[in-house]
Amino acid sequence: MARIYFDAWGRGDFTTPAFAVLTADDYTPAHAVARAISAKSRVDFWGVNREGETRNAQNETVSVHYRTNLGRPISRDLGGGFAVRAEVWFAIPTPPRISTQNEED
Known about the structure:
Structural class: alpha+beta
Oligomer: single chain
Shape: globular
Number of strands: 7
Distance between the termini: 14 Å
Helix content: 10-25%
Order of helices and strands: EEEHEEEEH
């Protein structure tokens, strides 16, 4: 397991953890971050979309930006869907600032 550090901003009701933990179940670091934000906010996340990147003066990618929606699924009895509570953007530095438990001790 590894820690991923990131910056997050958005609108709505959400809480941001200090870091996300990348596990074998995560497809990408972006999914780990979305999962961490949704868990800390006690809601579900609906997809992760890449939204762009930040580049420095040498045209090198400094961070990659993503967006996710947080909320709760709506029962099929009530028509189904997803009730959005927050829209969150987050940036993961490139290369990602990932550290293991041993490096932090």
